[in-house]
Write a structure and sequence with these properties.
Layout (H helix, E strand, L loop, with lengths): L19 H9 L8 E13 L2 E12 L3 E10 L8 E6 L2 H5 L7 H15 L2 E6 L2 H4 L2 H12 L4 H7 L10 H9 L4 E5 L3 H9 L3 E6 L10 H11 L7
Parallel strand pairs: 4-5, 4-6, 6-7
Antiparallel strand pairs: 1-2, 2-3, 3-5
Helix pairs in contact: 1-8, 5-6
Amino acid sequence: MRRGKEPPGGVTDGRGRPSSKTAFRARHRYNVVVPSHTVRQVASADFPTRWGQFRIFGFQGEFGDSHKEEAVALVMGDVRSAPPLVRIHSQCLTGDVFGSLRCDCRQQLEMALSMIAGQGAGVLIYEQQEGRGIGLMAKLQAYELQDSGLDTVEANERLGFKADQREFAMPAEILKALGVSKVRLLSNNPDKVAALERGGIEVVERVPCEVKPSGYAEDYLKTKKEKLGHLFTSR
């Protein structure tokens, strides 16, 4: 399986994790401090889709004293006998549901489900982290700021948020609950690799999740590469 184009610093461990300054950022953006937590499965059901037959699992998590999360996992086939293909997808109402061309989220979601179905096994974890964790209304405010000339990172920061507010402790715990300890991670984001490994999940391979974007998303993807360290083979 091919991997994304790595930054000039190179990769030192063959898992898609860049070295030098980018590696420092990747080691420290997510899950720097993971508070005491409890993650439990609350539901599971058969889940037929146009990509094939999945099983959907519902999870609830409590982190620290007040932070609560919910997420679902779509699971197809045997995910325990070999490292499965795994996609961690953050909720994007504007893209996933309404088909917004400002981002590539819906295309990535559909690509992930198609690739999992093509291999007959895999896991897609869908987290409620709209707008890189800032929430739907703040995301729309960020859109408004972008319309006036700010990029996606500048807009989040203007609103008082970090460039990326997300954490990925819950996906690691969900994978453990599913009996998965090693994965092939479908992602362009090396920070997710580092976050999963800090959470106790071994990433044996980073698999690119690249789609052909619309012209509306060009600046957005350029910012993700230049300011958030995402890896692209074609940019």
